[in-house]
């Protein structure tokens, strides 16, 4: 989150007097003085610094590796990655001190920001800017060299600096090395920012996908019970969104049309097709009387309007509770389970090609009769896999129903490899 910036110019009356010192700006406070190149530059760089959301973050190995490396190269006891905010310097990484920040007035690094160049202090006791600095007396700092952390926007966020407790010199070659290492720090900051942006984008996409998954589930018919039958469902996406779906629609008072669909594939591209297929079935139901003709029309519409190489399987059914008949037609979902009351379940195999692949397909309508107490289970391949992993044909006629009910009761805990959908219909 980007911190709201209060410009330093607005704060000057509260924190001290502003004076111009030979091209630099100076603010005198009760703790000392704050220096900067100009108010305009200061506000620009503070805006970018806060936009990076790096202040007060936890230590990160990418930055700690740099300070360790630099301390070894220059053989110094202290190395810092220092970021200069409005009123303090904060250390993103440090070697040789337990401090994680100081007031800005005591910061050697603020002079790098103000002078917009690398600053080298060979002996702090000989430099009037620092000889009275509390860090010189308290920490024994005698040598300082700080290179700019210069962004692509031209803002100086802070420094990569080295500190020693004895005076020393820095050669021109060593100066170049320090500046190159400061560029490494900036690269790590930019990489961190890019990774954070990508993480935010991923989280936003994940939230959208989660919302889409909830919407998919909300579009499904709820389980219900009527005078004719009990209707229950099992719906488990293998990912957040699903290529499976189902639908019921009453046709008059005593007929119920329904279908179950499994779009080939997984994930978002597959899930995006479910709404279009739902429309295809609705349109076909308005124009066709025969269940077989309806399935043929859905295939025809699918070839015209669905994206290329998007195929789907389906199973359509029509219950007539007055005549006690079930009409059904298969398009790639080539089976269903039927348990007659008092008998073992029967696994019906039904031929029929998947939809969206071949034109001019004719889907056959089949029919069987049912009576009170019968149970039907229509399902996609995912539930078939569950059945195969937990065999039900062991002579106990209730196992299939128990498996469905157990799966429905524990579906939040189930881990499936494929989108899993099953419809359980018990005749009353």
TrEMBL record:
<feature type="domain" description="GAF">
    <location>
        <begin position="58"/>
        <end position="199"/>
    </location>
</feature>
<dbReference type="Pfam" id="PF01590">
    <property type="entry name" value="GAF"/>
</dbReference>
<dbReference type="Pfam" id="PF07228">
    <property type="entry name" value="SpoIIE"/>
</dbReference>
<dbReference type="InterPro" id="IPR029016">
    <property type="entry name" value="GAF-like_dom_sf"/>
</dbReference>
<dbReference type="InterPro" id="IPR036457">
    <property type="entry name" value="PPM-type-like_dom_sf"/>
</dbReference>
<protein>
    <submittedName>
        <fullName>SpoIIE family protein phosphatase</fullName>
    </submittedName>
</protein>
<dbReference type="InterPro" id="IPR001932">
    <property type="entry name" value="PPM-type_phosphatase-like_dom"/>
</dbReference>
<dbReference type="InterPro" id="IPR003018">
    <property type="entry name" value="GAF"/>
</dbReference>
<feature type="domain" description="PPM-type phosphatase">
    <location>
        <begin position="226"/>
        <end position="427"/>
    </location>
</feature>
């Amino acid at each position: 989150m980007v911190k709201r910036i209060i410009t330093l110019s607005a704060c000057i009356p509260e924190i001290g007097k502003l004076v111009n010192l030979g091209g630099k700006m100076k603010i005198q406070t009760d703790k000392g003085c704050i220096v900067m190149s100009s108010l305009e530059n200061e506000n620009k760089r503070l805006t970018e610094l806060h936009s990076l959301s790096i202040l007060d973050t936890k230590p990160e190995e990418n930055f700690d590796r740099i300070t360790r490396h630099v301390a070894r190269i220059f053989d110094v006891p202290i190395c810092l990655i220092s970021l200069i905010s409005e009123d303090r310097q904060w250390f993103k990484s440090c070697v040789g001190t337990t401090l994680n920040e100081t007031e800005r007035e005591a910061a050697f690094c603020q002079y790098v920001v103000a002078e917009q160049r690398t600053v080298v202090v060979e002996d702090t006791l000989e430099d009037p800017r620092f000889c009275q600095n509390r860090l010189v007396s308290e920490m024994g700092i005698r040598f300082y060299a700080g290179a700019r952390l210069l962004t692509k926007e031209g803002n100086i966020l802070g420094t990569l600096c080295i500190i020693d407790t004895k005076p020393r010199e820095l050669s021109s070659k060593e100066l170049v090395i320090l500046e190159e290492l400061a560029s490494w720090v900036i690269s790590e900051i930019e990489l961190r920012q890019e990774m954070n942006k990508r993480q935010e984008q991923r989280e936003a996409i994940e939230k959208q996908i989660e919302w889409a998954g909830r919407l998919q589930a909300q579009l499904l018919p709820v389980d219900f019970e009527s005078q004719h039958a009990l209707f229950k469902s099992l719906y488990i996406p293998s990912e957040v969104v699903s290529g499976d779906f189902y639908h019921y629609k009453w046709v008059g008072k005593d007929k119920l049309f329904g279908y179950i669909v499994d779009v080939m594939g997984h994930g978002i591209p597959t899930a995006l097709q479910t709404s279009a297929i739902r429309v295809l079935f609705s349109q076909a139901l308005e124009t066709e009387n025969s269940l077989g003709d309806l399935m043929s029309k859905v295939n025809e519409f699918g070839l015209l309007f669905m994206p290329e190489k998007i195929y789907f399987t389906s199973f359509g059914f029509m219950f007539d509770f007055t005549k006690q008949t079930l009409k059904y037609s298969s398009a790639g979902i080539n089976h269903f389970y039927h348990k007659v009351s008092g008998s073992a379940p029967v696994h019906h195999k039904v031929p029929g090609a998947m939809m969206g692949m071949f034109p001019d397909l004719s889907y056959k309508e089949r029919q069987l009769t049912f009576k009170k107490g019968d149970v039907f289970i229509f399902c996609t391949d995912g539930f078939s896999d569950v059945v195969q992993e937990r065999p039900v044909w062991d002579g106990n006629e209730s196992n299939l129903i128990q498996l469905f009910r157990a799966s429905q009761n524990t579906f939040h805990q189930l881990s499936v490899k494929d989108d899993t959908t099953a419809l359980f219909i018990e005749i009353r």
